[in-house]
Amino acid sequence: MLFSKAAIFATATTLAGLVQAKVHLVKVGDGGLKFNPEAVPDVAVGDTVQFEFYPKNHSVAASAFTNPCVPLDPATANGTSSFFSGFIQVEPMDKFKPTFTILINDTAPIWFYCATGKHCQAGMAGVINP
Fold this sequence. Notes:
It is a single chain. Helices cover 12% and strands 29% of the residues. With 130 residues, the protein is α+β, with helices and mostly antiparallel strands. It has one domain (21-128): Sandwich (Immunoglobulin-like). The strands form three sheets. The chain has a four-stranded mixed beta sheet, with no helix packed on it. Strands 3-10-9-6 form a four-stranded mixed beta sheet, with no helix packed on it.
């Protein structure tokens, strides 16, 4: 079977685009009331951010820089997608770590926090593309 150079180039270019997308891991609650890392720089359009949950009960929700412990209101988000993982309970003996993944659609900063109890007020907040 013969392929044109143009078809091979187009296929290689498409595959290269798929390979370039990265998964950025953020550990939620690993070692206390914190995200690790708290800041996730250089996340490109098409990359994903995967939040991996650790004991006990945590969540991840979109917020705004001006109101870090309040859920982002979709009506006033100015193009930023709001998201909420829901409350995710993980027991210390659990071998499986649940995850929540978001797709990055632009490179504007995305602020997030843990909405469980007073976790955010204790400092459990972070940012993508600070």
